[in-house]
Amino acid sequence: MINSSAIDSPSFSRRQLLNFLTGTTIAVTASAGLYTVGKFLVPPAEKTGAGGGIIAKDVLGNAIPASQILAEAPGTRALVAGLAGDPTYLIVKEDGSIDSIGIVDVCTHLGCTFPWNGNDQEFQCPCHGSRYHPDGSVARGPAPLPLKIVQVAVVDDHILITPWTALDPRTGEKPWWV
Ligand code: FES
């Protein structure tokens, strides 16, 4: 069960957030199965390479083969370690490929991590109730901004994650994180 008082604390650290993410994944998967939460949990941050890109990793710091993600059902949101160790959702599209846009699992309100609710087709933050559409745009506040996105590419059997610096496709404007 999620400890909401701990979540509401302003001193809730990044490490606690990641622990929370792990607990949430297990708790949700073990209960009603309402959420399709990624099972590829998050290792420590990694330095970025040339171009600011990194290879997506799992909780043990091992590179996740693209074939492992592609074996998931269409519509799956698979959670991996992304840029600066940020938990990042990769999306398996209906055509069986990995979406070229990944969504960073850090709420723009106060930084909580959150699950994907497949029934509602929303990311739903448990801390203060923000909800996001599948593309990461805000469906309901208090979140003030759309979720950060990253570029995702499959290179051989690796998944390369790089910063998104182009216009934000949801707003048509310069991204708030650039
Ligand atoms: Fe407040 Fe997500 S951190 S709604």
Automatic annotation (TrEMBL):
PANTHER family (alphabetical): CYTOCHROME B-C1 COMPLEX SUBUNIT RIESKE, MITOCHONDRIAL
Transmembrane portions of the chain: none
Co-factor: note: Binds 1 [2Fe-2S] cluster per subunit.
Compartments it resides in: Membrane
Organism field: Synechocystis salina LEGE 00031
Domain Rieske, chain residue ranges per copy: 65-161
Pfam families cross-referenced by the UniProt entry: Rieske (PF00355), TM_PetC (PF25471)
SUPFAM superfamilies for the chain: ISP domain (SSF50022)
Principal location class: membrane
Catalytic activity: 2 oxidized [plastocyanin] + a plastoquinol + 2 H(+)(in) = 2 reduced [plastocyanin] + a plastoquinone + 4 H(+)(out)
EC number(s) from the headed UniProt entry: 7.1.1.6
Protein name (record): Cytochrome b6-f complex iron-sulfur subunit
Lipid bilayer topology: Single-pass membrane protein
NCBIfam families reported in the protein's UniProt record: Cytb6fFeSPetC, PRK13474.1
Misc remark: The Rieske iron-sulfur protein is a high potential 2Fe-2S protein.
Family: Belongs to the Rieske iron-sulfur protein family.
Chain's role: Component of the cytochrome b6-f complex, which mediates electron transfer between photosystem II (PSII) and photosystem I (PSI), cyclic electron flow around PSI, and state transitions.
Taxonomy, superkingdom: Bacteria
Complexes and interactors: The 4 large subunits of the cytochrome b6-f complex are cytochrome b6, subunit IV (17 kDa polypeptide, PetD), cytochrome f and the Rieske protein, while the 4 small subunits are PetG, PetL, PetM and PetN. The complex functions as a dimer.
Matching PROSITE patterns: RIESKE
Keyword tags: 2Fe-2S, Disulfide bond, Electron transport, Iron, Iron-sulfur, Membrane, Metal-binding, Translocase, Transmembrane, Transmembrane helix, Transport
Cofactor dependency: [2Fe-2S] cluster
InterPro entries: Cyt_b6_f_Rieske, Rieske_2Fe-2S, Rieske_2Fe-2S_sf, Rieske_Fe-S_prot, Rieske_Fe-S_prot_C, TM_PetC
